[in-house]
Write a structure and sequence with these properties.
heterodimer; A: 422 residues; Rossmann fold; four-stranded parallel beta sheet; 17 helices; B: alpha/beta; Nucleotidyltransferase, domain 5; five-stranded mixed beta sheet; 42% helix; globular
Chain lengths: 422, 983
Amino acid sequence: MAELVQQENRLIFTEEMKKEYTILVPQMAPYHFNFFVSAFASEGYNAELLRTDDYDLIHEGMKYSHNDICVPAMLVIGQFIDAIKKRGIDAKKVALIITQTGGGCRASNYIALLRKALEKSGYPYVPVISLNASGFEKNPGFKVTPRLLHKLHDAMLFGDLLMTLVNQTRPYERYEGDTKRLLLEINDEMKAYFNHASLFSWRRQKRKSKDIIERFKALETDKTELKPKVGIVGEIYVKYSPLGNNHLEETLEKEGCEVVTPPLYDFFLYSFDSGIYDIVEYGGSWKKKQVLKLAIWYVEVRRNKLRKMLKNAGFEASVPYKKIKAMANGFISHGAHTGEGWLLTAEMVDLIEHGAPNIVCTQPFGCLPNHIAGKGMIKKLKKHYPKSNIVAIDYDTSASKINQLNRINLMVSNAKRQQMKD
Amino acid sequence: MESLRVGIDIGSTTIKVVVLDHKNHIVYKSYDRHLSSVSKSLKRLLERLQAQLGNQKMKVNFTGSAGLRLAKYIGAQFTQEVISATSALRHYVDDIDVCVELGGEDAKIMFFDGVNVEQRMNGTCAGGTGAFIDQMASLLDTDAAGVNELAKDYEKLYDIASRCGVFAKTDIQPLLNQGASKKDIAASIFQAIVNQTIGGLSQGRRIQGRVAFLGGPLTFSSELRKRFIESLKLENVFMPENGEVFVAIGAALEADGDLMSVQDVSDKIAAYRKQYKDNLRKKLNPLFESDASYEAFKVRHHNARVEYVEPNDYTGNAYLGIDAGSTTTKMVLLTDDDRILFDYYEHNRGNPVDLVRQALQMMYKQLHQGITIRHAFSTGYGEALIKHAFTLDGGEVETICHYEAAKYFNKDVSFVIDIGGQDMKCFKVSNGVISSIVLNEACSSGCGSFIETFAESLGHKIEAFANMAVKAKQPVDLGSRCTVFMNSSVKQAQSEAASSKDISAGLAISVVKNALYKVIRAHDVTAEYGTDIIVQGGTFKNDAVLRAFELETGIEVTRPAIAGLMGAFGAALIAKASAKEECSSILDAKGLDDFTYSTKRATCRLCHNLCALTINIFNDNQRYISGNRCEKGAGITQSYEDIPNLYLYKYDKILSYQSSPTKTYKKTVGIPLVLNMYENIPFWQPFFDALGVKVIYSERSSKKLYEKGQDSIPSDTICYPAKLVHGHIESLYDQSPDFIFYPNIPFNFHEKDYADNHYNCPIVAHYPEVIEANMDHLELDKFMQPYITLGDETKFITKLLTMLKGVLSVTKRELKYAFNKGMKAYLDFRETVQKEGERALVYAQEHNLNTIVLAGRPYHIDPEINHGIPKMIRSLNVVVVSEDALNHLANQNSVRVLNQWTYHTRLYDVARYVGTLDNVNLVQLVSFGCGLDAITTDEVKEILEKNNKLYTQLKIDEISNLGAVNIRLRSLLSTMKAGVHRG
């Protein structure tokens, strides 16, 4: 039995724990997180993705966290505690992992809130691992090795790829359920993919991507009648997590729309880039700046290849990071990079300019950065793009679904009317 | 013949139908409230329709929020209500610029320009509209039409928070209690709706030109329209015929689906009802499994009671306690051996003075010569007013009264929770002392009166409504955030055909969850508060609430039979304990008969707070002033000016940084008095001065200033300090400086090495971006919002050099000089503040005074943001110190949360320091909507409790009701030096 070790006021994740413990991963982005878990597993961690999808688990979160804290924190905490309590796993052999962005937003504090909640709910012995790029909190049993990093990178690419393909295919599939079936099939195959341990597996990544794109292309679709495109932007958790946004993707598709969700990778590049910005503007390490620049460059090289493949196969691909960054110009400064910051505004501009002027801007109730980059920018966007059709939806522990639906419905009605006019 | 078209509009509170013929003439229309059940009302409506139209085939189109799911289910056409309204408007008139539509719970604005329509709906946090008027009407003891009548001859408008019903209620209740006229309140309610519509929905677009008014409230309330017209200075208003069913007309015009008969629709809806009956979204367990378990429960609670005695069977002394609460007035008269001679419990329905007078008269009638009232105490919101009106012997803070009463039932009581009409009080007792007090904040005050208002809106009496809950089989889960959300949840439950029984039980459970998880925030009640729990307050008279509480906590609690009278009972016990030889000074029966009472309103102009005073005049010559924040308004001559008060000190200090009136300047710069500027002005003013630039500031904050900028606020849930920025910027433009300077400062000064980082909060850091994006009606060329850091001189100078180009010719050297000058001034300022903080502590010690560290952010020194709380504390004879004046004295240790915001690091530090001092307590000021404080409050509390200190939090917003603040502070002070503040 692994010993509990306290360091700097926290339990650390030891090497023995790596052997004995199961690491629980909260669900945030369904297209991506599967692969993250596979990547962890291939590196010798017993990782398990939490698939609980019942909004009721928020009650566990509410019980053990401050009531005014935002929905993502409550849901993640709720999902963890619910899992430890109900699912018959040995609570003494469980560790949790959570990402920590380290920006000026309160999301950087989730890990502390989670620890408090664990203490209050009677699991003070459960260690929490911080997954971050800022070098917070080191753990001897959990090391982000270059190989793991590269696998996570792959996971991100595949997640974005599948999200794009599914969103562009499912609304038009001829046989209902085809797309979903293919998605599940590929998800299964990917486990084996990550077991391959090479650091320089970009050839395989390319081959696999090509294969996936072709299989999606092969699905029979009917695009005689194009559906209005609706973009989803917003706070990172409620943007991607069906649990957080009441299954927004599904709702919009049912309303007869094609959903466009900007890639998750952009958010990470944006985070790196923010680091560069701060070093340039406010001072900092030159070396760190170069590393970040290199990282962005490398990722974009890989992504450009994917973009090309997608385009060749007749799919739409996301615009390069540089372009998306330029889209914020004239709206908001790149210095505004708390939370989703300028990226959120830039994504809206991108959506509007690329055929999806209909946008759901999601945010947890009372989300601070979104007051600035989301709701704060809508007026300016409207002025530049009179046809933009943006609805801001607040997600809350007990916001009524019907209110959300009604507002989404208004946006969709307008979208359809506009499409008919055009 | 062309077929008829039917539009059915199912809103949150009403159901409307319109039938149009091929010439678009209205063949049939109706407008009804659907009270509880949408499907039932719809069924009735369809029956009427069938009687009118027989079985002909028609095109049916649904619209309205509650119709969405239903229409989907039965496969009928559905048009979103804003779209329906737009198409109806287009049909009748084509020159409308703006349309304002208020519905039961939704508010909408449509801006028309050419072919485009821009439509807005209220966000999820914006209750008050039609349902809001209803809710407020019940406070005034009338209905919506009555409010309109009242509003016709108003004299004065009060500030009533416009964000949501709960806030407004906290504003209105004290006004009523202080005897303000209902007429004025009614008009103020309408004004609040106008402000909310402008503040919440216009978002930078002005409501002007030809404006259409739609929806029930605007159709039926002439005075509401008047308030809109006056506030917006409208000249051209369009009021359609049939405004109340206008949206249904739009739906009928849009009807374009398959033909169906009324019978077809009815059949489908019957199927829908059937399905949804057994398929409610969220179900909870019933409160009682069986009638038997309810009986057992009743028997168990029957034991906690006080004996009564008939006045005729008793001779001797008596002691009176009067609890003038926010929604109810209670009275208890006790004998020497603690039996009740007389009790009284009544809803306020307006003025408590009249009510207490009636109750006293009633009491005197029942007493006889042999009973002498020896001592009489008042408590509750109206404590001071009642004490003065009826010349009682004393008053006591309500928390203390409740503790006294609770002790009577269980001397080992460890925890008391009191849920009253509008407020919730809980306190923990350890070693015989109240050790932590929790009162609900303005945003969760939907307690007892909330259930009551709901019961009434569903057409039930509260008692009957409570009894229903006991029998509920599947209580509805309504969530536990706030009234406004519960309104929507109830709406949803109704649209899913939940019964009133299940809703009633659901409400009871929600109130309890609110209390436990939101107010007390107890995850494990018994572990934290022990098992000797007493529950009380009017709301616990509701068996459903009591049961829900027991189920949720998992323990059996004591509910005294006099649960609703506990405050008065406690006051009577205290009266008894402090009784002296002589008789009570309370007005006798004769005095009551001659008693006269009138009120006058005035505004105190002795300082910038401009308190709205109510002057209560008793018996033509005695005056009691309420509504004041400090002693000045009350006409008290004793001066507290000498007592150190860092909030007042800092505010004056900041404003003392003025450019010289004699010096000639090259340019003028406007700096808004907002957010972090309240701390950085000591840097900026000397900095610009050194560059030869004259600094002018925006005017001081006020409600007026806020209103001036409110139509460009894009987010209605942002904190009040941020909302105020808009008004300040407007005010700067009025003074036309050469340029306006408002920088983005993501990183603050690096004050402490051990802090993880030194961010500003996202709002403080980036609000200038919001200003630029949303105030484009101003000359934005003048508006400078660079990203800067004050922590790195070289970077700062480079930035300012490029930025100032074109406005001002400065050299690097000059900038360097100015920077150093500014920095020195800033550091001096910080040091002076710290010196003053130290002096305050010494002063407190020398004069044996209590000290409160009022911990907030730099901008909390703005009196419009702190609502004069610092002054109010001073008038309680207490020294007030700010967080940034003492944090430097703290032992420097890291805290458990990520310690990355400069202002917050100060909070943690000062909390640790307070822990080491005697007679010093910390009170944290938190602005509503501050997301970061969800983290800091917990941490500060933990730090204080580790040092055995009480934690008190005051939540502030636009509202300026200080009643609750007063109670908390006095309760806190009573634990600091017990006895000193009694009487």
